[in-house]
Amino acid sequence: MTQPTPAIVPQSAVRRLPRVALWLFCAAYVLPGLMGREPWKGNEFTAFAHMLALAEGHSQWLNPMVWGQVPELDALLPYWLGAWAIQLAPSWISAGMAARVPFAMLLGLTLASTWYGVYYLALSPQAQPVAFAFGGEAQPKDYARTMADGAVLALIACLGLALPSHEATPILAQLAFVGCAFFGVAALPYHPRYSLSALTTGLLGLCLSGAPSFAVLMALGSGLLCLMDRESTTRTTARQHALLLLGMSLVAAMLSSVLDVWHWRLMPMHRDGQEWRSVGRLLAWFTWPAWPLAIWTLWRWRRQWTSLHWSRHLVLPMWFTALTVGTALLTQSSEQTLLLSLPALATLAVFALPTLRRSVAALIDWFTLLFFSGCAFIVWVVWIAMQTGWPAQPAANVARLFPGFTPSFTALGFFVATVATAVWIWLVVWRTAQHRHALWKSLVLPAGGAALCWLLLTTLWLPLLDFARSYKPWVMQVQAVMAQQAPTSSACVMTYGLNTGQMTAFHYHGGFDVHPLDGQHTPQAASCEWLLVDYDLRPDLATVVQLNAWVRVRTIRRPSDNDEDITLYHRRRQP
Length: 575
Hints:
By secondary structure, the chain is mainly alpha-helical. The chain folds into 3 domains: 20-261 and 277-355, no CATH class; 358-469, no CATH class; 472-571. The chain has helices spanning 19-30, 43-55, 77-88, 95-122, 140-157, 170-186, 192-207, 212-228, 235-259, 273-286, 290-300, 302-305, 312-329, 334-338, 342-350, 358-388, 392-401, 411-431, 444-457, 462-469, 472-485, 500-508, 523-526, and strands spanning 492-496, 513-516, 530-534, 550-557, 565-571. Strands 2-1-3-5-4 form a 5-stranded mixed beta sheet, with helices on one face. Helix 4 packs parallel to helix 15, helix 8 (212-228) packs antiparallel against helix 9 and helix 13 runs antiparallel to helix 15 (342-350).
């Protein structure tokens, strides 16, 4: 027996978000950060190192490796995409920007797959609002479109999505393919062919992006849910869907075995209370504001998922969320893995909208207004301080934290930031007006605020962020010291103790021919005039080189990072 739905929605409340507005909204979130910056330190630069090595022919396509170091994830497809983009890009586009283009498209794919997944889930009979005695309730397709619009807004509003979704890393590819798989399972009762294409893309993409175990578990669990679904399809159709997903899981497992990309990365549960508190804080801010709305959904729709005749629009995103959050608790990279839960959490969050009380919606609006307006105000004040020196305290803080940074003014960035701020003010006025709007009205300010702050950071603060997070200023500083010491020296450099990202930085930004020391000197390395050593490993340097053959020049600290120092040596000239 189908439980009564808690959603009471009239037709007047299911206005579509204009397509142009939705497209512009998504573009305003996807495009900022794509241009005008270098690859950033951390996961992005490490991934970029493997992409660049593939593009330059210094690595094997089926076994990516840079200077003898394998990638942290057994991911092939993300590195292929970046390498192909670098190879196909015209000469006026830098390799760093070219590598980000396919990943910006993957973020767009994530938003699109979330929209379509929620649309088909909202079409299910259990998700539909209450039918009125004299008509006037929301029509199924209009209701589904409204809920799908709200899901995209809920996804954009998630605070944890901002930075990881704008970096060219394998985790962004995994997010896009999880979204494809989610859409494929959601649309199975309506468009089996589209579902098959989406499932194939999603599951095989996950296998090639470093998450084969996750793909197999996702397919098996989804197949079991399809088999148990007694409301959306007939028993025969449910069995067919379950067999399809079982077959897809077998194909994914076989492909992973052939390419040898299986890797067990789970670790035991945390036993330290401090670790659990850290994970709890991560869950709280990373998935905000989706998680409180998702909890409200589970409570208000509890009769639809606690009975035998459960609703797929709740149980399916619950399964995806439980799988990803459970995996995040058992991995060292909890923040990256938790990113994969956001499409499913946004889905659960949006089904809270038909049941929200007016007072709760008003609380969300006021909190969002104060939080994001305050963040935007801080960004503007610090930018003005960088440009003019007033207020003095923010300018002094920037000079102290980022020594050597020179602020610059870009007319385009200022114009875009000004327009975005004006649009935010208009959104606030529109939302606070005393008239009724569509269901997604409560998510306009959270999504708009998240997009505004990310856009302001990647326009007004982009030079500062690039200085702080890229390796280019550091490499230029080392080059300047080399030019003072030996202006006519070669561009060959040996390294000791540097990681993949650091070595790639000197190759990419400085054009150096890099040779890491591993105890065996190559003919090319024997002629290098320069040696870069991690500061903490200087006591061990005598084990790999003859110290009397080198002259210590100086220790160079990376700007904005006190824990990343290197010592520069120059080969002693023979008498």
